[in-house]
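look at this record:
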Amino acid sequence: MTQPQPSATAIFYRNLRWLRFVDRFGRKGQQAVEYVGGLAQLVGQTVTGVFTRPFYSSELLRQMDELGVKSVSITGITALFTGMVLALQSAYSLEAFGGKAFIGRVVSLSLVRELGPVLTALMVGGRVGSGITAEIGSMTVTEQVDALRAMAISPIRRLVVPRVLATVIMMPVLTAIADLLGILGGLLIAVVELNMTPQDYITSIWQQLSISDIFSGLGKTVFFGLEIAAIGCYNGLQAQGGAASVGQATTRTVVLASICVLISDFFLTKLFLAI
């Protein structure tokens, strides 16, 4: 028996559904390209603003305190307990092979190379990125940004540059503190739970950890800070409407900043290993 041929109406609706899918996909792609282009333009203007007048040094110092110093608690607690958990888990894994003495090496290398920079960036992205978007977004929807333009004040130089520069400067500092607290957390577990001496733990770290490991981890955080602050500022400046728009922009910042940190971490790791 021959199969019945689909009617012209069925073919029309099937093609229509396909065209709608292509249209939605094209619109999403266009929005993504426009977003990346606008973000790249903002980064370019920010880099130019860093090296040209006027400089808002007082605003930069205020943002370093707001975005950096006030983030020490959340990043420090995260790193401290991460180091403790890492030491505890590593101990049970290495004990079967008689490698308990290498716990200091495992904890220090894991924290300094990867966990310290990435976890610090994720915590800062959640706190700082969302805060930047909420603050600038509120100024945008209440027309304060337009008022700055009316007074011939560049919103990029006045709002974006201090926040981006403060985040880029403070990210390595926060990461260094987080690395130290994470290693101390591992030391606490090694002494209390695993009956190791502090000297053995520290000697293990001293023999393994190198300057290149430290600088590769801290070098990543400069790029992480730029990504977090730039995304937060751009989403804040693009907010439209009212409070709901600001909330959506804040959520978008946290999600995009976290994704960008994780993706760029892979490529930065490849880069630093190749250098």
Q: What stands out?
A: The mean pLDDT is 86. DSSP finds nine helices and no strands in the chain.
